[in-house]
User: Which sequence fits this backbone?
């Protein structure tokens, strides 16, 4: 470490609980792993070896998750299929071994990792969706007709309603002539709903629909070919002669997640009559991709299978608004849907009872043209696709009976098979992992639940679920909002609430990952029903990274009072076999800065063999973190680092000043920093604003490639660009539920029961996931008034104008206007008092919130005073004092002055890599802040801890970092021993100097992966008597180095500055030095691949590495220097 100055050798006296936690982190601070049992390949000896390896490096437990069934050619004979007696025997063995070793086990809600299904789930209790068919008839006489049955999945269909309403007048349907700018390409197939042909366009061009007579276009439905953004941002032009075109408008893609970008979208169009319509493709102006615009991540080409231009008015992008998929879209306006385009509610007739069991309808409606709408529900057909023997339909997430059955048949059966006594000691966590089964929008009890919750019967409004507007655009949108709200509430209560209840009944904690962006919900609300919220982050996989997942989990943990918040850690799209702890450190530290305080490493794949290395993998996905990793044993130092960090970050509660309201839209999520630039431009700074404008401009729509073979938008948002976005202020998101139920005001701060406390609530400007910030329920507005009158400070950018809901309509809108009048001053003053609090009109142009009594919590500057923005930080307040975690996110050394918002206590510097604790020797206190100079090596981190009261205002007793002078460079030859069991030379070698192994001519050295032992004897004579400590600086290391001097283990160097203290081992005279250096698997795998006919020293189920991949630097490269402090 670079911190410890003149007095660093003096121990800090009077050990406290905080010190004890740091020295010996509790079990809660130990990282866990996802333990995947792949393809039925499980062995008793492999289980024992896996668990012993976990215990050896200090892991706390494992999430046991079987993945898929046996491959076509099983890798072991016989394979062990999930749910068989032989497989349960292995589960019992795993639990017994975990019990013996003092490890804990978690199990998922089903076979595989998504989400909750199995063979016991029949179609009627599987996830349900609304389906429909329409029939047009002429009224005026009694008649009987057979209604077409809507689409059916899994052979299951149940009626919801049959409704009749007058046919809205529309233009006559006509088959257009379709042409395209591509030469010699017949695009007529685009008018047919088919799956065999598609248009692919890489350069600007157009698709034209020509009609014999003027044709009314009111909506356009597009089916893309795969996950395609460009299909939904085409420019619509119209012409009456096919030569002179005018622009009608550009289609706007809905915000969507990774599971529904390939779906059908119906775009409402301002009614336009013409004989010719063109859809023009040009990638310029494309938005870069994001978590909520997944299809824009990929190459900007147009890929489309079907286009329907229709005169029928439809609710804009209704499939997302009905909850069929996770999407967010702008509301349909009256310019898109006039009242004349909508079905009057007074004309809707309920004919449900007139439909017989054979689907025949007997009716007698007045004269005129009528639409008969038959609505029902069927299974979505989704399954837990990553399962094996336990694979089946996903249970109905809105039906508590289906949820209970799912729990009992998988997790409950696990408890019965293990035995309740053993399970009570070992099986400690029930888990719901990645939500990968899409959304659902119905359950048999839905109509009654809707009426109970929203206060009105949804029956006559149900045409809106088929996209047919009722009464008005506004009424249709309000009803669909209420529909989505009801879906979210039922998901929380009936799925998460039921699972939470059952987990606790069985003595387990409940952990869960995010539901967004796949299942319609409030992305934070479900975490109130779990014990351990969990997000996820990815390594070198920008297209799959999930910064919003992290923000959802952390913010929810804070506002709902969950002390542990986990992350699925270091998941990787394409494993490169070159991963090592130093590479991972800054990414992990960044998540600590955001509020994560326990990692679950992804992934420890069970290796059933003891003689095949590296062995089993999750194909090529995930960080290879298992017992046959080359650096597994020396990597314990990295795990110890995590344990210390997590122990500290679990103390007390997070100190966060700013709460950002997630909005009233549904679905909703925590707010990402880039979405706050328009609301807080002054706080985020001019450079950030300009950078974001340029990023969103996406000029030229550039692509980049990471990992190899995965091309994507170069301007996608990157978490690494938002390390300290509010420049010294931390923020959380807070949702409607938490504000309504839990928020209180104390001493002008909004507080929540778990300890979260915010000095300012920000209601942001409209943004992609909240396209209309002027929508607000009266309940929320009333709550804001209560809070501000009690002393809270609130920033509001746009005065709310109407409620998003139909509940209480129209009185809800007038009530809202009265409340907004109370909240906001008539004179448009930027600030005004309301009761004991204050309302501030945004956007905020000032560069701090100091005028509101909120000084920045953390400021990092260079010695010359320039602001530094690549320093991550987190602040926690414990009973013993203030804890700041500080992380250098740069790949270069930085000397800093960190100014922290605390006074009256001596700063201490605690090193989570070495475990040493030392008082800062130089610091200053003034105006409510303490300034501490520090120096951080590349990607280094430190805890600044304030515990001990002091009357002093400053100290200046030398630098807070190590200043070294070189005493001896260990030059000359080294005796080096490779492991012949891993393909290394059989006999020890002598290197004349330190070099990268891959530069050697010997192939058994060049391709070696594993641990190599360097030995050298050196003679040392002390040069001075004033030296306190001695350090061995290793220079360049690839990748980990364990140092032993004179048979005394001195430690592992795994991260910069690659320096180990040797004070207690060094002796005058001759010294015997041994350094064990471990590299990664990549060189051995490349060597074996390039010599397929030679003896193979590796064996793995992972696919081969790319042929163009080169060897990676390896070994101790140095220079190795003995230095004195």
Assistant:
């Amino acid at each position: 470490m670079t911190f410890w100055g003149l007095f660093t050798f003096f121990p800090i006296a009077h050990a406290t609980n905080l010190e004890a936690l740091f020295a010996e982190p509790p079990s809660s601070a130990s990282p866990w792993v996802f333990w995947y049992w792949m393809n039925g390949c499980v062995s008793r000896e492999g289980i024992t070896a896996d668990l012993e390896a976990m215990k050896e490096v200090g892991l706390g437990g494992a999430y046991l998750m079987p993945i898929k069934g046996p491959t076509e050619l099983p890798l072991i004979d016989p394979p062990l299929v999930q749910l068989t007696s032989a497989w349960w025997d292995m589960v019992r063995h795993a639990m017994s071994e975990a019990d013996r070793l003092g490890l804990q086990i978690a199990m998922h809600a089903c076979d595989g990792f998504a989400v909750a299904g199995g063979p016991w789930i029949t179609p009627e209790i599987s996830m349900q969706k609304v389906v429909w068919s329409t029939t047009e008839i002429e009224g005026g006489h009694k008649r009987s007709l057979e209604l077409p049955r809507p689409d059916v999945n899994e052979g299951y269909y149940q009626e919801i309603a049959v409704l009749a309403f007058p046919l809205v007048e529309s233009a006559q349907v006509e088959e257009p002539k379709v042409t395209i700018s591509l030469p010699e390409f017949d695009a007529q197939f685009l008018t047919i709903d088919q799956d065999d042909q598609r248009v692919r366009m890489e350069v600007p061009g157009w698709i034209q629909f020509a009609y014999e007579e003027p044709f009314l276009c009111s909506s356009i439905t597009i089916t893309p070919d795969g996950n395609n953004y460009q299909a939904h941002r085409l420019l619509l032009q119209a012409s009456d002669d096919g030569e002179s075109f005018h622009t009608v408008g550009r289609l706007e893609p809905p915000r969507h997640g990774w599971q529904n970008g390939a779906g059908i979208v119906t775009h409402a169009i301002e009614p336009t009559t013409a004989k010719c319509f063109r859809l023009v493709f040009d990638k310029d102006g494309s938005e870069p991709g994001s978590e909520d615009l997944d299809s824009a991540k990929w190459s900007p080409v147009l890929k489309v299978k079907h286009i329907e231009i229709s005169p029928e008015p439809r609710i804009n992008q209704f499939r997302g608004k009905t909850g069929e998929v996770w999407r967010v879209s702008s509301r349909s306006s009256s310019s898109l849907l006039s009242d004349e385009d909508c079905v009057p509610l007074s004309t809707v007739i309920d004919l449900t009872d007139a439909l017989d069991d054979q689907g025949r309808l007997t009716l007698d409606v007045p004269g005129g043209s009528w639409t008969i709408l038959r609505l029902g529900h069927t299974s979505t057909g989704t399954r837990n696709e990553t399962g094996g023997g336990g694979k089946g339909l996903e249970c109905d997430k809105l039906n508590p009976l289906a949820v209970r059955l799912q729990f009992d048949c998988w997790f409950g059966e696990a408890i019965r098979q293990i035995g309740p006594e053993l399970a009570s000691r070992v099986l400690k966590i029930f888990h719901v992992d990645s939500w990968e089964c899409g959304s659902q929008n119905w359950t048999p009890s839905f109509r009654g639940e809707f009426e109970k919750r929203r206060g009105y019967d949804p029956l006559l409004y149900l045409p809106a679920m088929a996209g047919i507007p009722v009464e008005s655009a506004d009424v249709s949108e309000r009803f669909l909002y209420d529909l989505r709200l009801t879906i979210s509430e039922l998901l929380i209560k009936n799925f998460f609430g039921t699972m939470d209840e059952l987990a606790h009944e069985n003595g387990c904690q409940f952990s869960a990952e995010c539901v967004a962006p796949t299942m319609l919900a409030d992305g934070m609300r479900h975490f109130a029903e779990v014990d351990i919220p969990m997000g996820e982050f990815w390594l070198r996989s920008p297209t799959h990274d999930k910064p919003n997942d992290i923000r959802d989990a952390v913010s929810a943990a804070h506002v709902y009072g969950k002390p542990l918040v986990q992350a699925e850690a270091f998941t990787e799209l394409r494993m490169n076999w070159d991963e090592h702890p130093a590479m991972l450190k800054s990414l992990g530290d960044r998540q600590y800065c955001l509020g994560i305080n326990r990692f679950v490493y992804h992934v420890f794949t069970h290796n059933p063999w003891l003689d095949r290395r590296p062995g089993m993998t999750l194909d090529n996905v995930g960080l290879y973190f298992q017992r046959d990793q080359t650096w597994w044993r020396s990597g314990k130092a990295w795990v110890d680092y995590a344990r210390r960090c997590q122990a500290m970050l679990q103390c007390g509660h997070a100190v966060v000043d700013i709460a950002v309201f997630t909005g009233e839209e549904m679905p909703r999520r925590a707010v990402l920093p880039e979405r706050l630039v328009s609301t807080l431009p002054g706080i985020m700074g001019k450079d950030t604003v300009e950078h974001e404008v340029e990023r969103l401009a996406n000029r030229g729509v550039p692509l980049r490639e990471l990992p190899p073979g995965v091309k994507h938008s170069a301007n996608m948002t990157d978490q690494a660009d938002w390390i300290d976005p509010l420049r010294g202020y931390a923020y959380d998101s807070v949702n409607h539920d938490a504000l309504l139920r839990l928020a209180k005001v104390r001493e002008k701060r909004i507080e929540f029961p778990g300890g979260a406390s915010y000095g300012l609530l920000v209601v942001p400007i409209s943004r992609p996931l909240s396209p209309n910030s002027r929508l607000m329920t009266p309940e929320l507005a009333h709550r804001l008034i209560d809070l501000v009158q009690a002393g809270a400070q609130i920033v509001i950018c746009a005065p709310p104008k109407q409620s998003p809901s139909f509940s209480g309509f129209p009185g809800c809108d007038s009530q809202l206007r009265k409340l907004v009048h109370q909240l906001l001053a008539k004179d448009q003053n930027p600030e005004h008092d309301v009761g004991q609090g204050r309302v501030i009109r945004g956007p905020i142009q000032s560069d701090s919130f100091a005028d509101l009594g909120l000084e920045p919590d953390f400021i990092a500057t260079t010695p010359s005073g320039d602001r530094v923005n690549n320093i991550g930080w987190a602040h926690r307040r414990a009973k013993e004092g203030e804890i700041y975690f500080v992380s250098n996110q740069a790949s270069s050394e930085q000397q800093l002055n960190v100014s922290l918002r605390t006074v009256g206590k001596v700063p201490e510097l605690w090193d989570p890599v070495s475990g040493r604790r030392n008082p800062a020797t130089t610091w200053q206190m003034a105006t409510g802040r303490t300034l501490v100079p520090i120096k951080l090596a590349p990607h280094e981190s430190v805890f600044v801890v304030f515990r001990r009261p002091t009357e002093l205002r400053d100290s200046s007793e030398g630098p807070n970092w190590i200043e070294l002078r070189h005493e001896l460079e260990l030059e000359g030859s080294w005796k080096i021993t490779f492991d012949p069991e891993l393909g290394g030379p059989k006999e020890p070698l002598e290197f004349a100097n330190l070099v990268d192994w891959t530069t050697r001519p010997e192939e058994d050295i060049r391709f070696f992966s594993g641990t190599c032992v360097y030995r050298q004897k050196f003679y040392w004579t002390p040069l001075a008597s004033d030296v306190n400590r001695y350090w061995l600086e290793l220079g360049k290391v690839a990748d980990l180095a364990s140092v032993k001097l004179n048979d005394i283990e001195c430690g592992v160097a795994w991260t910069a500055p690659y320096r180990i203290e040797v004070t207690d081992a060094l002796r005058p005279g001759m010294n015997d030095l041994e350094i064990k250096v471990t590299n990664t698997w990549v060189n051995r795998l490349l060597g074996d691949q390039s010599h397929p006919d030679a003896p193979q020293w590796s064996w793995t189920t992972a696919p081969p590495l790319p042929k163009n991949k080169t060897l990676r630097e390896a070994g101790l490269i140095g220079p190795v220097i003995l230095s004195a402090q």
About this structure: Residues 475 and 656 are 39 Å apart (CA to CA). Residues 1-15 have pLDDT under 50 and may be disordered. The first helix runs from residue 17 to 23.
